[in-house]
Amino acid sequence: MSGAESDFRSGFACFAGRPNVGKSTLMNALVGTKVAITSAKPQTTRRAIRGIVHRPAAQLVIVDTPGLHRPRTLLGERLDSLVLSTLTEVDVIGFCIPATDPVGKGDRFIAEKLAAVKKTPVVAVVTKCDLASREQIAKQLLAVSELADFAEIVPVSAVSGEQLDTVTDILVGHLPEGPPLYAGGELTDEPEQVLVAELIREAALEGVRDELPHSIAVVVEEMRPREGRDDLLDVFAEMYVERPSQKAIVIGHRGERLKDVGTRARKQIEALLGTRVYLDLHIKIAKDWQRDPKQLRRLGFYD
Ligand SMILES: Nc1nc2c(ncn2[C@@H]2O[C@H](COP(=O)(O)OP(=O)(O)OP(=O)(O)O)[C@@H](O)[C@H]2O)c(=O)[nH]1
Description:
Helix content is 36%, strand content 22%. The chain is of the alpha/beta class. The chain has two domains: 3-185, P-loop containing nucleotide triphosphate hydrolases (Rossmann fold); 190-298, GMP Synthetase, Chain A, domain 3 (2-Layer Sandwich). Strand 4 (92-98), helix 5 and strand 5 form a beta-alpha-beta unit. Helix 8 packs antiparallel against helix 10. The chain starts with a helix and ends in a 5-residue tail after the last helix. The protein binds guanosine-5'-triphosphate. Guanosine-5'-triphosphate (GTP) binds at residues 17, 19-25, 69, 127-128, 130-131, 157-159, 274.
C-alpha cells in the first residue's frame, strides 16, 4: 500500500436517538445535496445506506439504524439482533440529543443500550443548536456529558450548517484506515421504488442464489400510504422468474419460502423507509425475460 492510500480512512457510522431529534436531517446535511438512499452493500453488510460522505482522505458511509429510530420497536422486545448487529457492525455511532429539550428518560434508555455495545465508540451529537441560546447549549453539553462516557460531544446545527464539518471530522477520526468502500460514481440516486425492488430481489435470492442467480427480477408497481393511515405504506410488487420450475423454487413447499421472503423483504423495506409496510407480492413467469429486449425494458433494464 502506498503512503497516500494508507492515510485513507473508510467505514460506517450510524445515528441513534429518540424520534424527532434530527437524525435524518443531520444525515442528509452531512451527505450534502447528493442524498442517496442506496441498498448497495459492500461485503456482507446488509444495511440500508443513507448516504456516503466523500472526503479527499476519507469515505464515511452512513447507514440506517432500524429500531433505534422508533420508540415502538425500541421499547418493545424488538431491540433485537438487527439493531444490535447494526450497532456492532459500524465503526462509530452518533447519538443525537437535541439542544432544545432536557435530557430525559428516552435518552437515558438509549444511552444505556449504546453503552452496552462496548466495541463501538459513541459520539454524542447535540443537535438543533440554532434553536438554542449559548447558555442552553452549554448546559446541555454538560448534561449530556453526565449521561455516559462518550468518545466526544459535539454541538451542531443541520439547518444553519454550523459544525457539520466538525461532526464529519470527528466521525471520520473513528474510522479505520482502509481504501474507499465505494467508487465515487457508485453512489446512486435511485428512486425509492428501485431500492425497494432491490431489497425484495435480495430477499428472494437468499438461499437460492446458486440455483437462480440471475433469473429473478422485481418491479414495484406502486407504493402509496394506506388511506386514513399515516403509519402504513402499501407496496405492490411483482416478482418475475423465467420458468415454472423457478416459480416453484421461489414459492417453496406450501408457499413457506415465499412467505419468508415477504417477511424478510418487508422488514428491510421498513428499515429503509422508516415506516410500517404492507407488502403485496406476486410471482409471474416472464418467459426467458433475460433474452427479450421488450421485457428487459419493462423490468427496468435499459440499454
Ligand atoms: N431548527 C432546526 N430544526 C431541525 C434541525 N434538525 C432537524 N430539525 C427539525 O426537527 C424535526 C425532526 O427532524 P428529523 O431529522 O426528521 O428527526 P429524526 O430524528 O430523523 O426523526 P425520526 O425519523 O422520527 O426518528 C424536523 O422538523 C426538522 O426540520 C436543526 O438542526 N435545526
